[in-house]
Prior knowledge:
This protein has 112 residues and is α+β, with helices and mostly antiparallel strands. It contains four helices and five strands. The strands form two sheets. A three-stranded antiparallel sheet has the order 2-5-4. The protein has a two-stranded parallel ribbon with strand order 1-3. A hairpin with a 5-residue loop joins strand 4 (64-70) and strand 5 (76-82). The longest helix is centred in the C-terminal third of the chain and has 27 residues, at 84-110.
Amino acid sequence: MPPADKLDVLQGTLDLLILRTLQWGPQHGHGIGQAIRARTDDILQVEHGSLYPALHRLRRAGWIESEWGVTQNKQRAKFYRLTARGKKQLVEEESRWRLFVKVMARMARTQE
């Protein structure tokens, strides 16, 4: 279980986080996880056991492509990039996320 100030990524949000991260350019798997942590001020953490299966699933869906490359540390790694289909999917995922946030805010207000 993560510490109280850390959040596990909710099921269904990982696709959005990965697609959004790749919108800024190609990245290797570990770099994607690091970018998510950095852009959320270390609040969201994506475990490798969740990240890599999601990357494979997104690749099979045609939303991302991968190719082998070399990291800044001279390590061989698979780099992922967003496809045209992935860009369209990102728009859909963001729309769903905005609706989810709106509904959750409404639920929180009705509980007061």
